């Protein structure tokens, strides 16, 4: 169940604040448009709380941003390690530093 859920990016607070400011919105204006409290927007922008799935969707749609780790291109997405049986060994995932 949790494997399919995307994690929120680490810099979600900066992304929200930057996009809000670029849109010319105050925290109160954004809160009104999302039907949320201004205190929630403040807490999100200060990194004090993570957005719920619902609030995350609203922010992404309103501000045109992406707050999910899984949606960004990841350097491991095209990795094709593993044995012929489809199972991975420690050697598939460890990088040696000799």
Automatic annotation (TrEMBL):
<keyword id="KW-0238">DNA-binding</keyword>
<feature type="domain" description="HTH cro/C1-type">
    <location>
        <begin position="16"/>
        <end position="70"/>
    </location>
</feature>
<feature type="region of interest" description="Disordered">
    <location>
        <begin position="65"/>
        <end position="98"/>
    </location>
</feature>
<dbReference type="Pfam" id="PF01381">
    <property type="entry name" value="HTH_3"/>
</dbReference>
<dbReference type="InterPro" id="IPR010982">
    <property type="entry name" value="Lambda_DNA-bd_dom_sf"/>
</dbReference>
<protein>
    <submittedName>
        <fullName>Putative transcription factor</fullName>
    </submittedName>
</protein>
<dbReference type="GO" id="GO:0003677">
    <property type="term" value="F:DNA binding"/>
</dbReference>
<dbReference type="InterPro" id="IPR001387">
    <property type="entry name" value="Cro/C1-type_HTH"/>
</dbReference>
């Amino acid at each position: 169940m949790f494997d399919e859920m995307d994690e929120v990016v680490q810099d979600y607070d900066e992304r929200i604040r930057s996009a809000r400011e670029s849109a010319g919105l105050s925290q109160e204006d954004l809160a009104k448009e999302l039907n949320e409290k201004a205190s929630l927007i403040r807490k999100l922008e200060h990194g004090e709380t993570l957005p719920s799935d619902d609030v995350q969707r609203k922010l992404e749609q309103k501000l045109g941003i992406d707050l999910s780790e899984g949606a960004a291109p990841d350097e491991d997405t095209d990795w094709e390690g593993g044995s012929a049986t489809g199972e991975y060994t420690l050697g598939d995932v460890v990088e040696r530093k000799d």
